[in-house]
Amino acid sequence: MIGAPKDDAMILAEAIRLVGEGVEVTFPVNGRSMRPFIEGGRDSVVLVRPTNVKPMDVVLAKTEDNRYVIHRVLEMAGERVTLMGDGNLQGREHAECKQIYAKVTHVVHPNGYKRFLYTPFIQFVQKMWVSLLPLRRYLLKLYTVYIRIRNF
C-alpha cells in the first residue's frame, strides 16, 4: 500500500516521527490493497498515534518482511499482529505490536471530505466485508467494473 522509493521512504519516516510526537498526519496512499474502503492514488489517510489498537482497526505497520503497509488488523496474539488488506484475496502479513507506527482514523477523499472509520455503521460494513472473504474476488471484480463505468 505504500511505495518505497527513497523520497517516499524519507516522507514516510518523517510522518512516523511526527505521529510518534502526537501530531496528526494526513498521508497519501497508493496501491489497491485496501479497496474498496481506501482507493490508492486517490485517497489520503489521517494517521494518529496508535493507542488502543484492536482487531478491525486500520494501521500503518512495518511487516516482518520489512514492508510498510496500511492494512486492517485481523488478530492480535501477545506481541504478534496479523494484518490483511481489504483488497487482498488471501495474503496476510505479520508484525510485532511495536512495529505498528500509526492508526488510521479517517479516509480523506479528493474533494476534502473526511470519512471517520469508526462509526457503528462503517464498522458493521467493514466486519461484513471481512466475513465475506470467500466472495471477495467477485465483489472486487464488481467494484472494479463500477470504478471503470464511473470514470468513463
Quick overview:
The protein has 152 residues and is of the alpha+beta class. The chain is 28% helix and 30% strand. The mean pLDDT is 92.
3D architecture notes:
This protein is α+β, with helices and mostly antiparallel strands. It has a single domain (6-151), classed as Umud Fragment, subunit A (Ribbon), CATH 2.10.109.10. The protein is built from 3 helices and 8 strands. It has helices spanning 6-20, 120-131, 136-151, and strands spanning 25-28, 44-48, 58-62, 68-77, 80-84, 93-96, 100-108, 114-116. Strands 1, 2, 3, 4, 5, 6, 7 and 8 form an 8-stranded antiparallel beta sheet that branches. β3 and β4 (68-77) form a beta hairpin. The longest helix is centred in the C-terminal third of the chain and has 16 residues, at 136-151.
Please tag this protein with its features:
Umud Fragment, subunit A; 152 residues; alpha+beta
**Unreliable residue stretches:** none
At CATH level 2, the architecture is: Ribbon
How would you describe the shape? globular
Any idea of the CATH class? Mainly Beta
> Main sheet?
8 strands, antiparallel
In angstroms, what is the radius of gyration?
15 Å
The string of secondary-structure elements, in order, is HEEEEEEEEHH
Compute the number of helices.
3
Secondary structural class: alpha+beta
CATH topology: Umud Fragment, subunit A
What is the arithmetic mean of pLDDT?
A: 92
> What is the count of structural domains?
1
Helix fraction by DSSP (H/I, runs of at least 4): 25-40%
Q: What is the fourth-level CATH superfamily?
A: Umud Fragment, subunit A
Distance between the termini: 25 Å
Strand content range: 25-35%
* Number of E strands: 8
